[in-house]
């Protein structure tokens, strides 16, 4: 199996602060890959590098064998044009901690927007597909509601449907349940579990250790901009090898 | 008086609600019946304000020097109507110019190109930093320093022929407005959360589409109310183009005033028309704001007509409950 995402010595700094200090990892196709770690460890930043919302300063990052944000010719690297970056992002879905639904559009309009505007799908076909996706995340009856009329958990499920509408080959989840009431977390995780079972490649930054253990195929523990420990979630979570992993897990589990 | 009416409806509503259900639930606590606080201060202040208003009205009504007849005669005078029309025309055109240029300036100001952003800054600095009256006179007198307008092979003409009162008025008001609109647009665009742009980019939308489909519609909610205010201001500021001899409402009425010895009366006429125009546009602005409020609150604010209907039904409900 080939890698969906491959990172080689990825560095990223904001101003003078180094946030990622050389990340090497590989995400296989069809895998649910969980990133855990304390806040400020760089896991969200790494996720945002994957679809070029952040530019990396050093190293190489590949999605499906393609360099992210750059083109290599000989030993020279060329920055991609905005339109080419947009082209790359079409295939990568992203779900944000704060949902970021478009507040001036109804749920179904949120889901339709990118297929119509980016792929040029006609509106009735896009609406049909959007309604199916909303049904799939259990919100078929909320299609006409504006985001402000939905609960946090419902908004996040609409956001997942919105990302799925572009038929991505990779889904990025940036702490998708961190802004939710504990009661609403389960619904979102259920949708993500279904998605994992359908074979979607997913990279999930999360604090939900239960989800990571149950659904995850690989898990990486990051701290201070480096990968401290990686392996199968069950092994890392039950039998951590590093002191730092042990002390982190003892606080969150 | 209104106090009592309000209390009436408040008492009536729960009563009807209760009657709709099958009476109070058994064991429900008895509703509180307390003597309301008396607001004597409200009565005193109402009387004082009413007395003052009465004095002013009386002063105008009994002033026998005011020729009310003249006000009535000239309100629909053709010269006055033409002046009001020109006020409307110059305000709308200057506003359109201001909005278009303002959007361009806002984008220039926010651009990563230091040259365009600096030029936009300098423009805003000059046109906001000098009085619009002075700017109008600058345009009007441009022929003093540039007698000929020479655009190479494209256009060449005497400046006095180009810079008519209309042109001076349009440029003076429009270019000044652009500086203010630029800042309003910039504030609006910056008010939209960065997460919106990120979400749109993550879906593969281009910069242009993100701006047009996601950012601008949300920015409009912030941009529309001050723009409406700017337009109402423009309607009134347009009276300054009196100075560049453009024959708008104020100039039309004053000309009549000085020949017919009805100076104040003609100013009243001008006020009436300014109020009519600004009132009409205020209503339009209300509906425009309502349009862009979609999604920002759970319920849209009621239209005036909906409010009237709601009040009517509330009134009839109150009556039926008292009968």
Furnish the topology, listing elements before pairings.
The complex is a heterodimer of chains A (253) and B (323).
Chain A: E1 3-14, E2 17-28, E3 32-36, H1 43-50, E4 58-63, E5 66-67, E6 70-73, E7 76-79, H2 82-89, E8 92-95, H3 107-117, H4 123-136, H5 152-164, E9 170-174, H6 182-197, E10 201-205, H7 209-215, E11 218-223, E12 226-231, H8 233-238, H9 243-252
Parallel strand pairs in A: 3-10, 3-11, 8-9, 9-10
Antiparallel strand pairs in A: 1-2, 1-4, 4-5, 6-7, 11-12
Chain B: H1 2-20, H2 40-62, H3 68-75, H4 78-110, H5 114-129, H6 132-140, E1 148-150, E2 156-158, H7 159-162, H8 165-191, H9 194-202, H10 207-237, H11 249-260, H12 263-292, H13 304-322
Antiparallel strand pairs in B: 1-2
Helix pairs in contact in B: 1-13, 3-12, 4-5, 4-8, 4-10, 4-11, 5-8, 6-8, 8-10, 9-10, 10-12, 11-12
Would you give an account of this structure?
The complex is a heterodimer of chains A (253) and B (323). Chain A is an alpha/beta fold and 253 residues long. Chain A has helices at residues 43-50, 82-89, 107-117, 123-136, 152-164, 182-197, 209-215, 233-238, 243-252, and strands at 3-14, 17-28, 32-36, 58-63, 66-67, 70-73, 76-79, 92-95, 170-174, 201-205, 218-223, 226-231. In chain A, the strands form three sheets. A six-stranded mixed β-sheet of chain A has the order 8-9-10-3-11-12, with helices on both faces. Chain B is mainly alpha-helical and 323 residues long. A two-stranded antiparallel sheet of chain B has the order 1-2. Chain B is flat. Chain B starts with a helix and ends with a helix. Mean pLDDT of chain B is 86; it is low at 1-21 and 318-323. The interface between A and B is medium-sized, with 32 and 23 residues.
């Amino acid at each position: 199996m080939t890698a969906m995402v491959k990172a080689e010595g990825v560095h990223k700094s904001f101003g003078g602060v180094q946030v990622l200090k050389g990340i090497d990892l590989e995400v296989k196709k069809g895998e649910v890959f969980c990133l855990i770690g304390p806040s400020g460890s760089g896991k969200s930043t790494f996720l945002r590098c994957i679809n070029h919302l952040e530019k990396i300063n050093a190293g190489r990052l590949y999605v499906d064998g393609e360099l992210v944000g750059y083109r290599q010719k000989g030993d020279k690297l060329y920055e991609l044009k905005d339109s080419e970056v947009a082209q790359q992002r079409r295939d990568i879905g992203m779900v944000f901690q704060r949902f970021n639904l478009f507040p001036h559009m109804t749920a179904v309009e949120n889901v339709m927007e990118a297929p119509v505007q980016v792929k040029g799908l006609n509106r009735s076909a896009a609406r049909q597909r959007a309604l199916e996706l909303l049904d799939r995340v259990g919100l078929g009856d909320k299609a006409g509601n504006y985001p402000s009329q939905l609960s946090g958990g419902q908004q996040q499920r609409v956001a997942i449907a919105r990302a799925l509408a572009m038929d991505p080959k990779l889904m990025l989840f940036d702490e998708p349940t961190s802004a939710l009431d504990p009661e609403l977390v389960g619904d979102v995780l259920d949708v993500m579990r279904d998605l994992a079972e359908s074979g979607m490649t997913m990279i999930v930054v999360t604090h939900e250790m239960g989800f990571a253990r149950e659904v995850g195929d690989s898990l990486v523990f990051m701290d201070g901009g480096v990968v401290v420990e990686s392996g199968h979630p069950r092994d890392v979570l039950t039998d951590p090898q590093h002191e730092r992993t042990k002390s982190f897990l003892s606080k969150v589990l | 008086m209104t106090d009592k009416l309000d209390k009436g409806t408040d008492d009536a509503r729960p009563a009807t609600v209760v009657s709709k259900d099958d009476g109070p639930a058994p064991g429900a606590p008895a509703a509180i019946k307390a003597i309301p606080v008396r607001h004597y201060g409200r009565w005193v202040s109402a009387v004082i304000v009413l007395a003052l208003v009465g004095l002013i009205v009386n002063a105008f009504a009994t002033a026998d020097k005011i020729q009310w007849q003249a006000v009535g005669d000239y309100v629909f005078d053709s010269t006055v109507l033409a002046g009001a029309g020109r006020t409307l025309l110059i305000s709308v055109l200057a506003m359109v110019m201001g909005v278009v240029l303002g959007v361009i300036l806002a984008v220039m100001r926010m651009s990563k190109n230091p040259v365009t952003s600096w030029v936009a800054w300098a423009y805003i600095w000059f046109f906001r930093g000098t009085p619009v009256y002075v700017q109008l006179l600058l345009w009007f007198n441009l022929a003093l320093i540039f007698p000929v307008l020479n655009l190479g092979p494209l256009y060449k003409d005497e400046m006095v022929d180009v810079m008519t009162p209309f042109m001076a008025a349009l440029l003076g008001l429009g270019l000044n407005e652009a500086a203010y609109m630029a800042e309003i647009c910039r504030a609006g665009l910056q008010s939209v959360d960065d997460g919106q742009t990120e979400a749109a980019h993550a879906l593969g939308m281009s910069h242009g589409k993100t701006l047009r489909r996601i950012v601008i519609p949300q920015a409009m909610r912030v941009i529309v109310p001050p723009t409406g205010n700017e337009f109402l201001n423009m309607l009134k500021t347009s009276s300054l183009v009196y100075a560049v001899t453009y024959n708008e409402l104020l100039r039309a009425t004053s000309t009549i005033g000085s020949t017919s010895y009805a100076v104040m009366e003609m100013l009243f006429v001008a006020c009436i028309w300014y109020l009519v125009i600004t009132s009409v546009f205020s209503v339009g602005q209300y509906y425009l704001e309502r349009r862009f409020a979609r999604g920002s609150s759970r319920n849209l604010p009621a239209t005036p007509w909906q409010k009237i209907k709601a009040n009517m039904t509330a009134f009839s409900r109150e009556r039926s409950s008292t009968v």
